[in-house]
Amino acid sequence: RTQAEMAHTCRGTINLSTAHIDTEDSCNIVLSNGGRTYHLKANSEVERQRWVTALELAKAKAIRMRNNQSDDSGDEEPASQSDKSELHGTLKTLSSKLEDLSTCNDLIAKHGAALQRSLSELENLKLPAESGEKIKAVNERATLFRITSNAMINACRDFLDLAETHSRKWQRALQYEREQRIRLEETIEQLAKQHNSLERACRGAPGLSSSNTGIASTAKGDVQSAKGEASDEDEETEYFDAMEDAPAFITVTADPKHHRRSGSNLSGASEGHPEDWNLEDSVFESSNQSSYNESTCKDLLPKKRRRTRIPDKPNYSLNLWSIMKNCIGKELSKIPMPVNFNEPLSMLQRLTEDLEYHELLDKAVKCESSTEQMCFVAAFSVSSYSTTVHRTAKPFNPLLGETYELDRLEEFGFRSLCEQVSHHPPAAAHHVYSKRGWTLWQEITIASKFRGKYLSIMPLGAIHLEFHSSGNHYVWRKVTSTVHNIIVGKLWIDQSGEIEIINHKSKDKCQLKFTPYSYFSRDVPRKVTGVVSDASGKAHYVMSGMWDEKMECSKIVQSSHGTTSMEGKQKTVYQTLSPKVLWKKYPLPENAENMYFFSDLALTLNEPEERVAPTDSRLRPDQRLMESGRWDEANVEKQRLEEKQRAVRRRREAEAVEALEEGKDYEGYIPLWFERKVDTVTGELICVYKGGYWEAKDKQDWSTCPDIF
Q1: How does it sit in the membrane (predicted)?
Q2: Using CA atoms, how far apart are residues 393 and 483, in angstroms rounded to an integer?
């Protein structure tokens, strides 16, 4: 079937040319195309194979038909309104010229016939022989002219028929686009109704919210022991809410004075001592008392006064669906987006925001125990997500060679530098040095997929943290972020997956689980749980909290193997002391909802500063215009910068081709402040800071910086 014919088929039809044909088991077949998925079951494996073969043959035929049709270019973006008007104007002009050509042909035929008659009359007259031969030759030439003229007009008629045929195909294609738009609008409306119905059904279900309250009261937190695969990265998978799994761990709070007696009935697998949980000399105590009030304490320190607000976000209307429908299935970084979807910060600045709770690492330096230090590192890894809960806007994609520095050496003891080291795929290198005893570095590549209902953002790359005095070297990776309700409803963000933090010196580990949101879960939303264990596998601390609010730590005094669950898995029961708060989120500033929900730190990230590199994100003009509320000018400037970057890329590609033809090596883009090395811990090739930036800043020598703005 052609695309136009597909628009008139019954509801439920699947276009085989773009369908995925899979087999679940010996008898089941799965057909999927876009938002539709059908599960078919055959009577036997032989019958299933016959159906699969027939479907594959039909799919191949459909692909050939699609490729042979000039009116179906599925990979091309739909023509704009101006293109359609130009197409109709061209067809109208072509038809007019063909009418003129047809009129000329009629005149040629008429005058040619008259000429031949005149020549025939002359030939019949009694003229000398020489004159008769000349008249005969002229008559033959006139006949040839008439034959040629007829051939020309026949070719013109064929051309006209062909143009009319293609015109009808183009009209069918336009009609098909209109039909598809109507169908999509109906589908979205139906989806919204189903969404509302499901919410009402969940609210009315009496057994989901109140069941098993006894278990919930004794279980302080649960952690799934087996590390699952990051299935969010599977772009062809669609996710549905399900009932929560049975917990692999159960924690019970014990009284420090009577924990030995209360634990006497447990078959102890490991024991700790409550005196280790000393309130006077433990670093946890200072964290418990000062975490929430840190922002108040910081105000007492002598420091440079920084801005506390930015211009309010303008209220611009935008047709979201008209833009997003062309983005389904594409890499987000390759889609030209207006600034209406952005926030006035670059991805380099968002990466620097991870340091908002840097004081957790300052406290971790003071820890004598590596497992205790691991608790602070785990809390720090979770705290970086606290700024994302309301931040549904997209940061600016950095230009290749763009940098961002955050020099807080005098105020907070650290200085940070980011550089965009690759454009496709987008990758940023980050290095932070703290004179208080730690260094952090990472190279993050963002992989993102838009799937119609949700947007998945998968940060790829390891984060390294090393403490100077102890040499403890921690490595972990980020979890998947998902933006829901892209088309219908209010946008909201969820974090899901697992973080495994490893101390490569002591071999201590911390397994953190970010529980995805579910309608049917009894847990609080945005829950995070985990266990800190040493090299031998002995558990020392239980971590629990919410990634947008706080993280607590409970010391394990005794552990035992509990009863076996219905699934055959044996649960571990941890008896713990009272939890201590390691980290608590700072409150958002006043009027944050009109300032892109920026935190106090985020409000200062794009504040103009002197002496920064000419490639610094603060100097990016489209981002500055957007922050000032001049969005139309920002869109124009954004297009100019992107076109300038494309021109540089084309020149670099031409240089690569020229070098290849000459048999020379071409290195491509080389980062300015970072260099690629094989990491000795993970074995991966990553960009690490090679030095020179802060020295260049002191000298104000930016001669090596490229002109990217």
Answers
A1: Peripheral membrane protein
A2: 10
Segment among 185-189, 609-613, 656-660 with least mean pLDDT: 185-189
* Structural domains present in the chain: 3-68 (2.30.29.30), 308-699 (2.40.160.120)
Could you report the per-residue pLDDT of 527-550, keeping only the tens digit for each? 999 999 999 999 999 999 999 999
Indicate yes or no: pTM above 0.85: no
DSSP string for 226-291: SPPP-GGG-TT------PPPPPSEEEEE--TTTHHHHTTTS-EEEE--GGGS-TTT-HHHHHHHHS
DSSP string, 611-628: S--TTBGGG-HHHHHHHT
For residue 425, is the peptide bond before it cis, meaning its omega torsion is within 30 degrees of 0? yes
Bridge pairing between strands 473-477 and 570-576: unpaired
- β pairing state of 454-460 and 414-422: unpaired
b/e for 183-205, b at 16 or more Cβ within 10 A? Answer: eeeeeeeebeeeeeeeeeeeeee
Is a pLDDT exceeding 50 seen at residue 146? yes
Tell me the CA distances in angstroms from 395 to 77, 337, 708, one per residue in order: 25, 11, 18
CB 542 within 8 A of CB 225: no
User: What pLDDT, in 10s, does the model give residues 565-591?
Assistant: 555 567 788 899 999 999 999 999 999
